[in-house]
Specification:
It is built from 14 helices and nine strands. With about 350 residues, it is mainly alpha-helical. It folds into three domains: about 1-60, no CATH class; about 70-145, DNA polymerase, domain 1 (Orthogonal Bundle), CATH 1.10.150; about 170-340, Orthogonal Bundle (hpI Integrase, Chain A). Strand 1 and strand 2 form a beta hairpin.
Length: about 350
C-alpha cells in the first residue's frame, strides 16, 4: 500500500491519498470531519497503515456513504437476513429506536467494549427489553464478521434477561368458566388450544390437511398475520387425537376448505379477534384477565406439573426446545405456594385427649 497526504488549495483542507489493490482513493474526512491540519492527516495515514498491517483495512469505510457506517449497515442488514416476521419487527424497533440514535454514522469496525457498555447503560427499557436490543446488535456484528466486513466481534458485556416474571395461569375450572362466556360459535378454537397447549399462532394456522383420523399435526404458524410454513422451533409436532379433540372436531362445521378454525366470514381468526373475545369473556366470568397465551399454553404446562406429570413429559407435550423453558412453569411465588398447600386434602388430626409428657 502506498499512501501520502496533500493540501488542496481550492478546498483549503488536507486529504489522504491511498493506492490499494490497483485503485487510488482520496480520503477527505477523518471520523466524519474535514481534515484541516497536517497533524490530522498524518494521524489518519498512520491509522490506515496500521489497518493494512492488521489486514483490516477497507477503503469504503472512510467514505460518507460507506455501508460500514452503523446506520446504513443496520438498515441493509435487517433487509438481508431471513428471520420470522415478529423477530424482524423487534429488530427494526431496536435499530430505529436505539442503535441508530446512539451510533449514527460511526464505522462499525470502530465499536469497542467500552462503547457497548455505554450503549447498554443508555437503553431505557426493562431488563428483558434491554437484552433484546443488545442481542440485536450482537447478532448484526456476528453477521458482519461472517460476511468479512469486520475483523472480529468486540466482546460484549454480560447480557441478562433478569429474573423471569411469575407465570400466571388458570386452573381447568377457571378456563371452563371463561369458555362458557364465549359465544358458542367461537368456543372451539379456545378449547382445542387449551387441550394441547398450543401457541396462539400455531392454533390459528391449523389446517385440515394436518388433521387425520388419529392425530393432529402442528407444522404451520401465523407470525404478524403472515402464514409461515413452519413453527417457532421449525419442528413439526404430532399429537394423538384425544376424546375431547375428536368431539370438538366432529361438532365443528366445515366452513373453510383450508383452515379448521375460522370466523363467521370464513377467514382465519386474527390475534385481535381472539384477544377481544377472551377479554370480554374474562370480565363476564369474573376471572382475572391474563394474556391469552398464558391462558392457553402456560396454563396447560402449570396444570400438568401441579398434577405431578414428569417435567420431561411436559416439555415434550409443549414442544419446548430446551428443558429450561419448561422449568419456568415449576416456579411459584410465595402466594401461589400457599394456595397450593391450602388446596391439599389431608385432614388435620386434633390433639385433644392426649396428655403432655411433662404433666404425667
Amino acid at each position: 500500500m502506498k499512501g501520502s497526504y496533500h493540501f488542496n488549495a481550492q478546498a483549503r483542507r488536507y486529504y489522504v491519498q491511498v493506492y490499494w489493490q490497483g485503485k487510488r482513493y482520496q480520503i477527505w474526512r477523518y471520523n466524519g470531519d474535514p481534515i484541516w491540519h497536517p497533524k490530522t492527516a498524518i494521524k489518519l495515514l498512520n491509522k490506515i497503515r496500521s489497518e493494512v498491517d492488521d489486514k483490516t483495512f477497507t477503503p469504503k469505510a472512510y467514505f460518507p456513504e460507506s455501508p460500514l457506517s452503523t446506520a446504513l449497515y443496520a438498515r441493509r442488514w435487517v433487509q438481508l437476513i431471513d428471520v420470522k416476521p415478529n423477530t424482524k419487527k423487534d429488530y427494526l424497533y431496536s435499530i430505529r429506536r436505539f442503535i441508530i440514535p446512539f451510533f449514527g454514522e460511526r464505522d462499525i469496525r470502530t465499536i469497542r467494549y467500552s462503547d457497548l457498555v455505554e450503549f447498554d447503560k443508555s437503553i431505557q427499557r426493562c431488563q428483558k427489553g434491554k437484552y433484546n436490543v443488545m442481542a440485536c446488535l450482537r447478532t448484526m456484528l456476528r453477521w458482519a464478521y461472517r460476511n468479512e466486513d469486520i475483523a472480529k466481534v468486540p466482546p460484549f458485556p454480560v447480557l441478562s434477561q433478569g429474573e423471569p416474571p411469575e407465570i400466571k395461569y388458570l386452573t381447568v375450572e377457571q378456563q371452563e368458566r371463561v369458555i362458557e362466556k364465549i359465544p358458542a360459535a367461537d368456543r372451539a378454537i379456545f378449547q382445542f388450544g387449551m387441550e394441547y397447549g398450543l401457541r396462539i399462532g400455531e392454533l390459528r394456522a391449523v389446517q385440515w390437511d394436518c388433521i387425520t383420523d388419529e392425530e393432529v399435526i402442528i407444522r404451520r404458524a401465523f407470525a404478524e398475520n403472515e402464514l409461515m410454513e413452519s413453527t417457532k422451533t421449525s419442528k413439526e409436532r404430532r399429537y394423538g387425537l384425544t376424546a375431547k379433540a375428536r368431539q370438538l372436531l366432529k361438532a365443528l362445521p366445515v366452513t373453510s376448505p383450508t383452515f379448521v378454525f375460522v370466523r363467521a366470514d370464513g377467514k382465519p381468526y386474527t390475534d385481535k379477534n381472539l384477544n377481544a373475545l377472551w377479554t370480554k369473556a374474562c370480565a363476564e366470568a369474573d376471572v382475572e384477565k391474563i394474556k391469552l397465551y398464558n391462558a392457553v399454553r402456560h396454563s396447560l404446562g402449570c396444570q400438568l406439573l401441579d398434577q405431578d406429570v414428569p417435567m420431561d413429559a411436559v416439555q415434550k407435550i409443549l414442544g419446548h426446545a430446551r428443558p429450561e423453558m419448561t422449568k419456568r412453569y415449576a416456579m411459584r411465588t410465595s402466594d401461589a405456594i400457599t394456595k397450593i398447600l391450602d388446596n391439599r386434602t389431608a385432614k388435620i388430626i386434633p390433639m385433644t385427649g392426649k396428655q403432655r409428657v411433662d404433666e404425667k
